[in-house]
Amino acid sequence: MHHLKRIVVKVGTTTLSTTTGRLDEKQIKSLVGQMAELYRRGVELVLVSSGAIASGLESLGMRERPADIPGLQAAASVGQGKLVHLYSQLFGAFGIEVGQVLLTQYDVTHRQQYLNARNTLDRLLQLGVIPIVNENDTVAVEEIRFGDNDSLAALVAGLVKADLLVALTDIDGFYTADPKKDPEAEHLRRVDKITPEIEKLAEDTESELSVGGMVTKIRAAKIAMTSQVGMVIANGRAQNVLKHIYEGREVGTLFVPQERTVRSSKHWIAFGVKPSGRITVDDGARDALLHKNKSLLPAGVLSCEGDFSVGDTVEIADSQGWVFARGKTNFDCVEAERIKGMRTEDAAKLMGERYCKEVIHRDCLVILEH
């Protein structure tokens, strides 16, 4: 771990707040001190921080978190500035500059915005600045919201080609059950692959006090691992947790990155764009995509779901429903349904001049899981 050069630290609301929902400045100061120590050792850091809405609620005298989007946006508008000001003061005491970066899903689902965000983050790191990233809650509506900072942090880790993503939360890592309810829950120290069983375990631990709970962290781990970024889930209130992770101690749960390389454009296809539908394929097509570097042809398609158009990103699932890839389709949902299961020459006769041989070309397809 001490060879790590670039780390993304994600801090959840439960790690930054007291039991009454107010910002815990003593805790924030402790985390900043730990990050400053890593910075001193030559580590480039990106901080993805929750807490803006909590800060705004406190400032506005609101007792409860608003249920409506405008109310949340108003709280975020007031709280974001106060939160960044606090970080600026605390990091400034160590001679470290910070920069605020607010993102919406639009910024990663549109290719040019995606590149702009990556270039901005890279330049800040080159200048020795610690970017403080959060979702732009003041303008994000339901259609362009990430919904959780875990997914945002994993996408940012891929954007900046980080070596490690550290997700700090209120439990000691990933368990086989909710440790707050089940004393027999086993703490998993290492996860090499996100399997359906791992995802099911995450669903059973949803009671963690944060948006989405462990489900969103497993989703983030999947993004990170596919992007060749390791991820550690750990307790943010454990003493010197960041220092101990950096020193290679057995802290939290480590999710091991995949060895294969995913090009930047394919990373964008895989995780920067919300899928508009799903194409289910037979076992032969799954094998060809996973192991033979082939494109998806009509003959291998079993069914289509969703309302997707030409050029949209869709999920690719096997006959058991396991999503193992994503890609940009050459057909809309109606056309794909018409030619499913057909041989190439038969599909060409049916479609005429508009026919494209591949439903999804290999260059526009990314494998998520083998």
Please render the helix and strand layout as text.
Blueprint: E1 6-11, H1 13-16, H2 25-40, E2 44-49, H3 52-60, H4 69-92, E3 98-103, H5 106-109, H6 111-126, E4 130-135, H7 149-159, E5 164-169, E6 174-175, E7 187-188, E8 190-191, H8 196-203, H9 213-226, E9 230-235, H10 241-246, E10 253-255, H11 264-272, E11 277-281, H12 283-291, E12 301-306, E13 313-317, E14 323-328, H13 333-339, H14 344-351, E15 365-367
Parallel strand pairs: 1-2, 1-5, 2-4, 3-4, 5-9, 8-10, 11-13
Antiparallel strand pairs: 6-7, 9-10, 11-12, 13-14, 14-15
Helix pairs in contact: 3-4, 7-9, 8-9
CATH architecture of the largest domain: 3-Layer(aba) Sandwich
Mean pLDDT: 85
Number of distinct beta strands: 15
- What is the CATH H-level superfamily of the largest domain? Acetylglutamate kinase-like
Low-pLDDT residue intervals, each spanning 5 or more residues:
140-145, 206-212
Question: Which range best describes the helical content: under 10%, 10-25%, 25-40%, 40-55%, 55-70% or over 70%?
Answer: 25-40%
* Distance between the ends: 26 Å
Q: What structural class do the secondary elements suggest?
A: alpha/beta
What's the structural domain tally? 2
CATH class of the largest domain: Alpha Beta
Sheet with the most strands: spatial strand order: 3-4-2-1-5-9-10-8
What does this structure look like?
This protein is of the alpha/beta class and 370 residues long. It folds into 2 domains: 6-265, Acetylglutamate kinase-like (Carbamate kinase), CATH 3.40.1160; 275-367, PUA domain (Archaeosine Trna-guanine Transglycosylase, Chain: A, domain 4, Roll), CATH 2.30.130.10. The chain has 14 helices and 15 strands. The protein has helices spanning 13-16, 25-40, 52-60, 69-92, 106-109, 111-126, 149-159, 196-203, 213-226, 241-246, 264-272, 283-291, 333-339, 344-351, and strands spanning 6-11, 44-49, 98-103, 130-135, 164-169, 174-175, 187-188, 190-191, 230-235, 253-255, 277-281, 301-306, 313-317, 323-328, 365-367. Strands 3-4-2-1-5-9-10-8 form an 8-stranded mixed sheet, with helices on both faces. The chain has a 5-stranded mixed sheet with strand order 12-11-13-14-15, with helices on both faces. It has a two-stranded antiparallel sheet with strand order 6-7. Helix 3 (52-60) crosses helix 4 (69-92), helix 7 (149-159) packs parallel to helix 9 and helix 8 packs antiparallel against helix 9 (213-226). The radius of gyration is 22 Å and the shape is elongated. The two termini are 26 Å apart. The model is unreliable at 140-145 and 206-212 (pLDDT under 50).
